[in-house]
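Q: What changes when adenosine monophosphate is included in the input?
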Amino acid sequence: MKYGELVQVYEDLGATTKRLEKTAILAEFFKIVEVEDLPKITLMILGTVFPSWSEEEQGIGDKLVMKAVADAVGVSVNDVEDAVRDEGDIGAASEKLYRKKSQMTFFSQALTVDFVFNQLRKLATISGNRSTSKKISNILELLSSATGVESKYICRTITEELRIGVGEGIIRDGISQAFGIDKAVAERAHMLTNDVGLVAKVAAESGEIGLKELSLTPGKPVKPMLAQLSPGIEESILEMGCALCETKYDGIRMQVHKNGDDITLFTRRLENITLAIPEVVDMIREAFPNEDFIAEGEVIATRDGKPLSFQHILRRVRRKYDIEEAMESVPLKVYLYDLLYFKESTVDEPIIKRRELLESIVSTNENVELSDIVQVNHDNIFEAVNLFNKSIDGGHEGIMIKNCSEPYIPGVRGKKMLKFKAEPETLDAVVIGGVKGIGKRGDFIGSYLIALRDENDELRTLAHVGTGLSDDDLAKLTKLMEENKIQEKGTRITVHPKIIFEIAYSEIVKSPEYETGYSLRFPVVKRIRKDKGLEDIDTVERLESMFKG
Ligand code: AMP
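A: The predicted holo structure follows.
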């Protein structure tokens, strides 16, 4: 398929904000794509060439792409920067610059989807000596054969921001419409496989019957089931009737997969952290039988048997070098709490059954334990309160309250699993801009513009925050902001939404100054949530209900 055909679909999708229209455009397109190409095409419509669980990512900075565009069009990097400032993103800037130089592509051969896809995958593998210039020539190879509008989407795919307003949900609906599949069937197949490309291919090849056979596969991470805040221990338990209450450990959520001899560890964002914490692989091997499984638990850092703060475990999983040394200085411990697969998928079983099975197969030891748990109903709510107090005394975060009879629903944040913490509520918000500091903080971005998500997944500004960050944090954040920069005007900078802050505050107040219509009094950055992504930030809806509450 010619890349130009895909680009036309991008343009059509970008030209409407209506979900139904986008779905119809995709449905028509999927019908004409070769079945074998569907996985590739769906990834590219998501603006990437790697599945979300893949360890590989594009990871190319805007600067490098700007240099490639400058070389392709024959202008200076400053000219490209000016165009980016005018147009708002590097893709649109590139298209504009191409328009001025339209004769450039006159003799070149049309790009194919395969070529673009392979070239972009290759780009991610370039490292080592002279990697910058090799990357630029890789991008140039693409750009020199591209038309203006193609260059727009090549740049946007490289910088991982396609701007066509299509997520996995719309693609899934497009698949349903194209191949006459019941939406619920497509949704379930997607939920279990976490692979919209595979869903597209199976839907085209064998319809609903094929999709119904899809299930979890050990080795391939599933989106975790997420928790909502509990309004109160008693209220939540009364509502559920029967609840499993568990200690809430303040660590990193870990999905453990055993597939044959391989054990793989994923974070809640489905990043593979196996190499960073190799001792956990050995601990798991020791604790489980030699069967394929998928389990979930929390991995925490400890010292003298006591939990260390979240930052310690975060540093461990980010570490790439001197791992042996870190293993000694920051010992880890695993608390298991769920089982998603054992010989077969167990997600449809209620938590109480999954827990029983987990208990029956795991041999605990001092490094691998099962989460502390009590089963409660309206008669013994005090046991949940006791567990909560014990959790706080033990240096943990609070408790989880899980509805006894509920299955595991990947990727969904619902009322079936709740969290109750000791500390006041915080908000997870994304940084979309910043202001350079003055005085002592002159070299740093001292104030960060944060935003939440609205019901259409658009980002809405909420507040500026600068308190709570150490000089070291500020230096690192300033560097990150530079790397993510979209635009700079005077002391203000806008960035791609990649950094997540957990914000504490004294009060939510109404404010016309920010797009949410609210702001925060005395906001403080409690921590930088490297374990969370854009999909995890809080919504304007939650903010509103917190304000009213
Ligand atoms: P939060 O990160 O505040 O959204 O809280 C939900 C997180 O609590 C989950 O994603 C897990 O990482 C973590 N957690 C800690 N202990 C448990 C537990 N016993 N059961 C489920 N999740 C837990």
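Observations recorded in class: The first helix runs from residue 3 to 14.
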